[in-house]
Amino acid sequence: MLKISNIFKSLKIKSFHLLVFLFLVIGTINIDFKSYQTSFFALFLFTFVSYTQFKSRLPYLTVTLLFTLGLYTLLKGFNVNYLIGTILGLFIGYSIDFVGLMKKAAIFVLIFLYLVSFWINSENLRIFLAQDLSKFAYNNDPGIFLKTYYLIEQNVNYYDALNSAQLGRFGQHIVSGDVWGWRLPTIFYIWKYLPTSSGLSIYVLFLILASALLLVSYKIGRRYLGARLAILPSYLLFPYLHYAARDQTFLQTEWWSVSTFVIAIYLFITRKHFYSIILLSLTVLIREVYILPIGLTVIYLFITRKRNFRLFLIPLIAFLILFIFHTSQVNYYINAYGTLFSPRVVSNGLLFVQQTLAFASWEYLLFQFRPFIILLVASLFGCFYVYKNINKNEGILWTLAFLPFPIAFLRFGTLPYNDYWGIIYMPTVITLAPLLLGFFKQRL
Q1: Is 305 left (phi over 0), alpha (psi -120 to 50) or beta?
Q2: pTM of the predicted model, to two decimals?
Q3: Distance (Å, rounded) from C-alpha 137 to C-alpha 154?
Q4: Which of 132, 144, 168, 435 is least enclosed, having the fewest CB within 10 Å?
């Protein structure tokens, strides 16, 4: 019996290390072979994080690095920057570990790498944002939002500005015909009161917010998995934020709301209720779809007789007040009241969910293997681990933070244009996926 028990324990340990290896490989960045900066940063990041996980197991670290170098070479061709990034990643990892700062400094290395790499790779985006916004042509939602921001800077009323920006879209001079297509004004006025009137100020604020999200995802990992594994949620989230930081898509309001939402849920769980409710209110005032998880959370807390359910009523009331005003203003341009109960319905909900799961997955090297489906399943097990082994309420709260969205998208949305709605819940999914490791960690 003792021998069988030892074999079983050995299998559990090997399964744990195999899962860590798989998460590391899933998080590899899909690089542009011609960009030496991207090649270098991708391998530096992978090597550094791999070192944090396997520093005491040299054979595992060696196999992980060789496998991934081979994978990049097979899929992208060989580049000497792979080796440079790998060597420097090992050197930085060893140096930080040698001085005993790995537990405290690892996440800041990742955030620093995020800021430096994306500032280098976003040159074209920054040139675009710094130009005279009165003259640029656009044919997408980020362009509409940037034009709206510019007009607000010229002291134009938000609703006039958004209406004008929609009509000014190149090749499609129409406005959204339902109230749900008109974004709430909150984020635009936040942009307006930034120190400068350049679009670059919005970009800098987004980088700060994205860095905060990376830090909080690390804290979530540390809370449930411990210091060693804590960096995995941030590492997996890195490529997803990679897309936002180098493309106009960062202007989509979903990026801003999901960041404040995840941070708010973490603050609530850690009993920083005042700041949590402020951020939850800000979340629904930026993007109204978050009334779904917040409303379900109110119901859950009420049913389980938790007194703090009243706190979640604050963001709902704040949203209701703003939305009544918002609808009355939009009604000057379209029949807003007539479209209140006419949400966008999809005929093939499963396809739409698949599209939201595909959005930005191209930033991951193995995107053809549909990594977000894997991470979605892993996040469910991760929440179950929290529910079973840490705290039942926290497990349910994290589940409610993302699961209602793909379920709702089986019915509501627009094909094929709303694939970016994946932003609404995928950062939460990605952050929670590594918590699956907790089941195996408990047995080590």
Answers
A1: left
A2: 0.94
A3: 18
A4: 132
Q: Which of 58-62, 120-124, 331-335 has the lowest mean pLDDT?
A: 120-124
Residue 284 vs residues 128, 207, 254, 280, 319: alpha-carbon distances, Å: 29, 21, 11, 7, 6
**High-pLDDT (> 90) share of the chain, %:** 71
Three-class SS of residue 29? Answer: strand
CA distances from 444 to 12, 45, 64, 408 (A): 8, 27, 21, 38
Say if residues 417 and 350 touch (Cβ distance below 8 Å).
no
Mean per-residue pLDDT, 64-69: 96
> Bridge-partner residues for 364, per DSSP?
29
Joined together, the tokens standing for residue 348 give: 């093939």
- Positive/negative CA dihedral, 140, 146, 149, 153: negative
Closest listed residue to residue 252, CA positions, set 136, 118, 131, 426: 426
Given a cut of 50, whether residue 106 has pLDDT beyond it is yes
